[in-house]
## 1
Amino acid sequence: MKFYYVYILLCSDGLTYTGITNNIERRLAEHQDGLNKSCFTFKRKPLKLVFHQEFNNVIQAIYFEKKIKKWSAKKKLALANGNYDLLQILAECRNASHSNYNPKNQ
């Protein structure tokens, strides 16, 4: 059975990188070696793997990666740290155009 991994890297500048691979060791080495100068992580080393999740279905892995790529760094790090209470708080919309927005509750 083939496995796929969605992963989050924490870069030296505090930014995060989210990716997908079928070989996590190889992919992490590629990031660390920095052979591709146009790669997001090239100038942001050292990198730290802070999260990875294994999937046996590539469609599910792609869906999850696309979902969390849109998240803020704070939300990604809450997931990585297993801080599910904070993850829930960060998931709540606080946008003034959202129907549940109430500035008195902020």
## 2
Amino acid sequence: MTDDEKSNSKEKKEDIEKPKIPKEELVTTTHRVIIDGQEIDYTAQVGTLLIKEEEEGKEPKPKASIFYIAYIRDGISDISKRPITFSFNGGPGSSSVWLHLGVLGPRRVIAEANEKPVNPPYRLVDNNYSLLDLTDLVFIDPVSTGFSRAVPGEKNTQFHEYKKDLKSVAEFIRLFTSRSKRWASPKFLIGESYGTTRAAGLSGVLQDDLGMFLNGIMLISSILNFQTARFNPGNDLPYILFLPTYTATAWYHKLLSPERQKDLQKTIEEVTSFTLKEYTLALMKGDTIPKEERVQILERLADLTGLSREYIAGVNLRINIYKFCKELLRKKHRTVGRLDTRYLGIERDDSNAEPEYDPSYSAIQGPYTATFNHYVFTELNYQNDLPYEILSPIYKTWKYEDYHNQYLNVAETLRDAMSKNPFLKVFVGNGYYDLATPFLATKYTFNHLGLDSGLRKNIIMAYYEAGHMMYLHPPSLVKLRKDLALFIENALIFPSSRLD
């Protein structure tokens, strides 16, 4: 074999062994939808962007292929005045499908009827409550969710960490913004659940690292301070902050006294007052609480939760979320959901301490999975043989490398971003029946933000008689659309954000 033949043979072998980097994709289709009585023509963009890592003296190295769906309104003459909103969900490990097909996008899934799950087959309808009339929308699936994956030769797990996730999503936003020529456009983020953690973190990364200042952040079912949701020995905070949601749940299932069943708002005010006063002080006393006071607290807890006095005494006045979901309707052989306590589960073994599954997730998993796959492959003309990861279990092994032996708290990042950018507005949506991110835990976090008094008016809180995904509930969907639309409009009125 000649030297040339040996060289060609070696090159061919290297080509075979070298992992093939996937190409970026883009499929566009045009559509029309009626929103708030107005016909909106738009272009749907479905595709992938390659996230690359710079190496000194070398070509940038592809690390991951990020899948996205974008909706761009047609006929806009000056895109510098047209807002653009980047959306993602949580998990960590969730795709962006929930906000996409639940409330924001031009098509939505029917997943609830008369406050009950719907039966298969499932269907999509035009979403007359979409925000596409007000803002372009970009739905991002972080690595290992949706169709997003690390490229061949790279590991997905390198992105399964709080800060590394922020870096990859921020890089996608930068790349999309540059290619779409949208640096001059007003910019918003919207996240749900852990997506609110990501959004708050991104407020710092985008602003400090990329110089991208935002106009607004929308937080749906928020968790910024993880201490508020970790039922660990010695941490009494969750027992305190979950209590009003226990009461709301008992109210919904008609387990409270006739007087408290009359008015949900009045009952929530009562339990919140008790929670922040007598109950908090009682738990702070620990084992030194006087016997008489302990009995009084126990009686009030029983009256406000629908649980038995014997059970509350047995857990030392501290009601764990999962045990509550199992215990509340144990005598009826039912459990209540975690994401949405309106939903009921049926289990085989009533003697278990905790539920076997979350009935509120089971109620939405089928409708969103089926309709998304049908929608993306038919109406949006996109093809991909990978399974679309609706909710990957990577949350079980998710890492917080800089936060060992402490609770992650991104509220400080948000405070810092709002202080540096006093025009930044924040919307926070809360469901009364949400035990994943309870409303009082969110209120506690924002009450302890340490924000300058002149900036507090930039935060808007809204409440809904629904769960974690409040848009499942049709009346709450209508209210949420109005609240988000008003927030976006007000966030673009810049003078109102100036400090005195």
## 3
Amino acid sequence: MAKSSAPHKSLITLFVIITAIAVLLGFFLYKILYSQDVQAHKNVYELVAWSMVFVLLLIAISGTISVLTVTKQIRKLKDEASRFANGDLSHKIEMSGTDEVGQLAFAFNQMSDRLRASYQRIALEKQWDEILLENMGEGMIALDKKGQIGLINGNAVTMLNLKGKEVVGQLVYKAFALHDANGKKPLSAHDRPEMRVLHNAKPQSNVFEFWIEGQKPLMLHINASPVVIDGKTAGAIVILRDVTHEREVDRMKTEFISLASHQLRTPLSAIKWYTEMLLAGDAGKLKKEQQEFAQNIYDSSERMIELVSSLLNISRIESGRIIIDPRPTDLKQLVDGIVNDLKAKTEEKQQSLIISVHKELPKINLDARLIGQVFLNLLTNAIKYTPQGGEISVFVSRKDDQIVAQVSDNGYGIPKQEQGKVFQKFFRAENAVKVETDGTGLGLYLIKSIVESSGGKIWFESAEGKGTTFWFSIPMSGMKAKTGEVTLDELK
């Protein structure tokens, strides 16, 4: 490291002093030349002339040294700056002067320290990210905007039975194939959730089958989300979770419920029939107290049969065994028929019922049994949970490419803190249980399954003490036909 505080600055100062002396000598020479007695000052003139030569020589020498010194320092600064530019931050510029070059070197060293600290922090964060990525419980794949794999963690590699991370750089649909949830057909590139995300920038989430040769197919829940930068889709993040075991447990539970329901249905039906015979007097006239007991048995068996039927409906819809047989359906006729069936209940509670169906609505390809079940359940709930003299309305309209149905009431409403559980199995709101003790809590779960399996959506708004409005939508294109084993009518 240089010991001088400012080597070239000192030389410049010396250069200035010498120049000043030269100017003074020049002025002194001028006075002599224009004095009256030039001969008398001849010796002085020669002295001054030699002095001038000496001064000019000093100026030349000092200027050359100064230029060489500054040039050397600038060259050194340039070399170090080039090293910085190439990413080598391990050295510092050894130049401690307080002049401009020294200050520039100090600034470079500060910049180097900050960059070194930033690189260390980034390296540490990257290390943590890699540890986090590799220890995720799910598989993770990052895609670029073309669908090429840019990053994949170890869980995804293991889950998909891939060869290390050799798939990085490949198109995702070429790296591994997916089948639909039923395993009947492989998905095309266009239908894959990752590619759909890149195309429409909307999150996709569903369950698919993944086949590994010689092994049982895996059920993968795939959640794909877009990465949007400056309003443009720059890629996608794909999260994969193996739900094979969960699906197997659900299947076993569904089969158990179906089996148990079948076994329960026969004795319950027998109880109901024999009770009907007792009430009808087929075994002799009953006393008043006996009549009451028999009626209680009959009512209880009816509620149990309703519960069993609901369980069978749900188990068969979840297992995919329900037949979907869409046919051109007049929604006004369908709604009017259901309203007519419920007329006795609305009249009993003196409730007013408003029905409005879009007049120009064309016939839609629907399974009337399934959609009828949706309307029936929503209207039954509205009647049950609306007090005497209340108002219930049904509106069916068209919005873009969707049929939207609305069922509203001004009844008890659903408490805000419980609204997130409305579509769960066996859920019943606390205020509803106090008003109506009977109920299975399966109806809304059932109709949600029907609507979603039809390609539609269901949602609601509610305020406690003010009422509830349910909406559900179905595509104008209608429901897709599906082969199966049973229909809802067979479950009654």
## 4
Amino acid sequence: MPHVTDTLDDLARRLQAFADARDWARFHAPKNLASALIVEAAELLEPFQWMTEAQSRQLSPELKDAVALEMADVLLYLVQLGKQLDIDVVAAAHRKVDINEQRFPPLPHPQPGE
């Protein structure tokens, strides 16, 4: 069942309830979550490993679904890590975009008639 209106906080609460019901808190040290996130990121890369750029843009429905689940794994660990460290990952992402906007100004666009 999709949860399209959920926020990351809603997702974090659901993840916490899931972990609590299984007594997994002892495994959720920031170091372990960061390590698991990297493993999942590698699994996200695996389907693309030998594809051309064009192939990576035209995934079959089955492969696209598999990639979506790997992306979800990355997000889930990132959300859990943020919760463990009391970091609002959405606020941090906005801050990082602000920094990047300053570091990398937009390209000038030619004006009509130039």
